[in-house]
UniProtKB/TrEMBL annotation:
Keywords assigned: Carboxypeptidase, Glycoprotein, Hydrolase, Membrane, Metal-binding, Metalloprotease, Protease, Signal-anchor, Transmembrane, Transmembrane helix, Zinc
Domain of life: Eukaryota
The keyword Lipid metabolism is assigned to this record: no
Protein name: Putative glutamate carboxypeptidase LAMP1
GO annotation, biological process: proteolysis
Compartments (UniProt record): Membrane
Organism, scientific name: Senna tora
Length: 715
């Protein structure tokens, strides 16, 4: 007995030593589960970060925003994440003076109304002492000048709204138009007005869309926009610093950087050529009361107790003056780098912007707080021995609000290296404005994002996963695409062709009516956006988990079958749209078939390598095969970009996802084809339809290039 027991003890000791000897670090999946665990999640620290970041208004170029940058840098550094600031000098504009007067001409003559153009603080407003640091309401890059003319109400200022006006015989030429916010990008509202011959633009926040439909309750008692609340924002239609289109605005002491002159910038066509001003809902209604002419149709009307909306023109005269100053301001992107252990030259990039029009509790610092939460959890994983396979880069952008400037300058400066090394870009702008998860993505990421959403509980219903709530009763979740210029993903996907995604909770103006007003503060977030900060925790979980999988999985978790399927759907809807025209879509359908085939073959190859795995996988040769296959997966998205870019918008290289000409918020597939169709429907000429066919060919060729990259074979 003794003998046996000694023997077994010896055996036990021997095996435990052996075990120690061959024991590998815990598998990556252990760290991934840890990343999601309650022990690493911290809603209280997210709230603290948000509170600190939003203490003062911090528009791009301000001292307060430099302070916020220093804060982000210090948090990252304290987590042992090597970080630095990438700064640029860029052209920003600030308001110098504004005035708006309404001159009624109805008899008996009434005195002119001069608008105060001021957002009001409320009793007990904890930010009252810093309220005067909020910039006067304005449009960034608005044209300086005056405009005086009869008012015309143009609904949301879309192309189709002007068509409606033409049908009832209203001409906007020489008038000042009154538009309401909500359906298209404000820069397009101004540009569409200019193209119709208007001389000035006033845009108001209609109670119908932002005011709770006239329930007479607003912030701080309810989430709705107060009557004096104004949505400010940029009216620049381009991307990046307008004075350095396509290249980086270097921050040199001697300013050794080529820049366009003011005239050259105007000739580029992306900044407005007529002045504009944003106004409050209350001011909008006051102007509306002075407009005569035909009654606007039902869906042009306001909330239930609003005055009747008429289209004009006039008889009242609107007198608008705006003077802005353009300055060369220093902006700062904070960049933190967690170096990959095995493939340091492959980048998984997470980004969020920091600059805000006012306090920015939702837009964008809910995202910044989530970024810092991701960083904190990654820092914790590092302490416990985790090292990512690939490099993870955390970016906190500046001057997004002016025109995606910080991210765009950085991408333009690092374009070649990003084009050869970036695996994916994951953006979060407004992380949280309410309940409900939303994702936008290039389609090879769909499956990965669904998988992550299955792992994280819905913060508003713990019996369901985010995936289950997101999928709803339909059973399959809805992805948005990345066609619009809505946030910092634009340069990554639309200029360079990097697979990208964007996550948020909430969404839609109805859920977040104080958007870009001075009421987007910590109090609003605490009362209405995310009282317990659990949505922030969930946003950080999904964002970080997707990043971890992209950084750690041996094979890049990209699925090009989803891409082919999505393209097929877009091509079908295009077919329905132009079925009666003499356009052949067969090259497009054929190229999509080829992409599908290439994706299937690649999946087989991946399986074959996996089956040969085990000890053999340690052989260098097999590792090179994994790398080669991953490179094909990484580079396939680049193939959707085209040297010449979209017609008339050559910075936008991506032919599948990009903005359409008259609506930068739009995110349809094939923007080049879409614009060509719109033009052809307008011009109705043989040549214009021929251009549609040409655009179809271009897209088909890009898709074919992507299949060749996936196949990894020369023709
Ligand atoms: Zn934003």
């Amino acid at each position: 007995m003794i003998k046996t027991s000694t023997a077994s003890t010896l055996l036990a000791i021997a095996t435990s030593y052996l075990f120690l000897f061959i024991t590998a670090p815990p598998p990556k999946s252990t760290y991934h589960s840890l990343f999601l665990s309650d022990s690493l999640s911290d809603n209280a620290s997210i709230a603290r970060h948000l509170h600190t970041l939003t203490r003062r208004p911090h528009v791009a170029g301000s001292e307060a925003n430099a302070e916020a940058a220093a804060y982000v840098l210090s948090v990252l550094t304290s987590l042992d994440i090597p970080s630095h600031i990438a700064s640029y000098k860029v052209a920003l504009t600030y308001p110098l003076s504004r005035s708006l007067q309404l001159l009624p001409t109805n008899p008996p003559p009434e005195p002119p109304t001069t608008f105060a153009l001021r957002q009001e603080i409320y009793d007990g407003d904890p930010y009252a002492d810093v309220a005067d640091e909020v910039l006067p309401t304005f449009h960034a890059y608005a044209k300086s000048g005056s405009a005086s003319g009869p008012v015309v109400y143009v609904n949301y200022g879309r192309v189709e709204d002007y068509m409606t006006l033409r049908e009832i015989g209203v001409n906007v030429s020489g008038t000042v138009v009154l538009a309401r916010y909500g359906k298209i990008y404000r820069g397009d509202i101004v540009n569409n007005a200019y193209e119709e011959g208007a001389i000035g633009v006033v845009i108001f926040t209609d109670r119908k869309d932002y005011g709770g439909a006239g329930e007479a309750r607003w912030f701080p008692d309810d989430k709705w926009m107060p009557p004096s609340g104004v949505q400010v924002g940029s009216v620049f239609n381009g991307v990046g610093d307008p004075t350095t289109p396509g290249w980086a605005s270097r921050d040199d002491d001697e300013d050794e950087c080529e820049r366009l002159s003011k005239d050259e910038v105007e000739r580029e066509g992306d900044i407005p050529l007529i002045p504009s001003l944003p106004v409050s809902g209350a001011d909008g209604e006051k102007i509306m009361r002075s407009i005569g002419g035909p009654l606007a149709e039902d869906d042009w009307q306001g909330s239930k107790d609003a005055p009747a909306y008429r289209v004009g023109p006039g008889p009242a005269i609107l007198n608008l003056t705006y003077t802005g100053e353009q300055v060369l301001a220093k902006i700062e992107n904070v960049i933190g780098v967690i170096k990959g252990a095995e493939e340091p030259d492959r980048y998984v990039i997470l980004g969020n912007h920091r600059d805000a029009w006012t306090f920015g509790a939702v837009d964008p610092n809910s995202g910044t707080a989530a970024l810092l939460e991701v960083a904190q959890r990654l820092g914790e994983l590092q302490k416990r021995g985790w090292k990512p396979r690939r490099t993870i880069i955390l970016c906190n952008w500046d001057a997004e609000e002016y025109g995606l400037i910080g991210s765009t300058e950085w991408v333009e400066e690092n374009r070649e290296i990003l084009a050869s090394r970036a695996v994916a870009y994951l953006n979060v702008d407004c992380a949280v404005s309410g309940p409900g998860f939303h994702a936008l993505a290039t389609p090879q990421l769909d499956e990965l994002i669904k998988r992550a959403a299955q792992q994280v509980k819905d913060p508003d219903n713990s019996s369901l996963s985010i995936y289950e709530s997101w999928a709803g009763s339909g059973g399959s979740p809805l992805f948005g695409r990345l066609g619009g210029g809505g946030s910092d993903y634009a340069a990554f996907v639309q200029h360079v062709g990097i697979p990208s995604a964007d996550f948020s909770f909430g969404g839609g103006f109805a859920g977040y009516p104080v958007y870009h007003s001075m009421y987007d503060d910590f109090i609003w977030m605490k009362k209405f956006g995310d009282p317990m900060f659990h949505r922030h925790v969930a946003a950080a979980s999904v964002w970080g988990l997707v990043a971890l999988w992209l950084a750690d999985e041996e094979f890049l978790p990209f699925d090009y079958l989803s891409y082919a399927k999505e393209l097929q759907v877009s091509a079908k809807s295009l077919e329905d749209q132009i079925s009666n025209k003499d356009i052949s879509l067969s090259p497009l359908f054929k190229s999509i078939k080829e992409l599908e085939k290439a994706a299937i073959i690649l999946n087989y190859e991946r399986k074959a390598i996996e089956e040969r795995k085990g000890w053999i996988a340690r052989w260098k040769k097999e590792q090179l095969k994994v790398r080669e296959l991953n490179d094909r997966l990484m580079m396939a998205e680049r193939a959707f970009t085209d040297r010449d870019g979209l017609f008339g918008m050559s910075w936008y290289k991506h032919l599948i996802y990009g903005p359409s000409k008259h609506n930068d918020y739009g995110s349809q597939a094939f923007p080049g084809i879409d614009d060509a169709v719109k033009m052809a429907e307008n011009l109705k000429t043989k040549e214009s339809w021929h251009r549609v066919q040409h655009e179809v060919w271009r897209v088909s060729r890009a898709i074919r290039h992507a299949s060749l990259v996936l196949m990894g074979q020369l023709t």
